[in-house]
Amino acid sequence: RGVEGNMRERTSQLLYAYWNEVRGDRVAPRRFDIEPSRITALLPDTFILERVSRQDYLFRLAGTRLCEQFGREFRGSNILAMFDEVDREALERVLESACKEGAVGVLSLEAADRGGRTVRLEMLLLPLVHTGLEISRILGSLTASASPAWLGQEPIAIQRLKTFNLIWPDGRPHALIAK
User: What's the rounded Cα separation, in Å, for the pair 154 and 54?
Assistant: First the structure.
């Protein structure tokens, strides 16, 4: 099934397929090559991060369903701040691999509301070139594997990283560009 076989959620598979089509033979597509009108159905579950530094990946945009599920607006906040220290370090490595080597990240999370009810989430992280040749944006999605009644009514309060995989669309890491 190709690279999409590493992804369980349909949103991840569709977003990856679109990103890969736009990417063509490049390491990553340019941020402005992404046309929201071509992924309208996916937008509620998508986000864009800006890499400010190795420890700071700020949300530029976040879909409406994401904001509803977490009970907050994400714009301007650091995605790494959502996780405990161990998970933050792992996510930081995945994001750095995306920005420095053109890797795609596929992560499995377990999330819970304050009452302890859980749901599995899949996060997809796709590198984007913003200016020049530097990958400094990440197109992502975060999709629940199920839709329990509480999700969107009670905010997700805790999320834990369960697994993560790095995928190189061309089968190998790229020694990238500007460090």
Answer: 32
Cβ 75 vs Cβ 60: under 8 Å: yes
- Is residue 82 exposed (0-12), middle (13-18) or buried (19+ Cβ within 10 Å)? middle
In the chain, the amino acid numbered 41 is A
Separation CA 11–CA 57 (nearest Å): 22
For residue 48, CA distances in Å to 79, 94, 117 come to 10, 15, 28
Check if the beta carbon of residue 114 is closer than 8 Å to that of residue 136.
no
Q: What is the pLDDT of residues 2-12, one digit of tens each?
A: 666 689 999 99
Output the six-digit token pair for 45.
Answer: 């579950």
pLDDT in tens, 129-161: 988 889 999 999 999 999 899 999 999 999 999
Cross-strand partners of 53: 56
Q: Is the pTM of this model over 0.85?
A: yes
For 40-99, give the DSSP string: GGGGGGEEEEEEEETTEEEEEEE-HHHHHHHTS--TT-BGGGGS-HHHHHHHHHHHHHHH
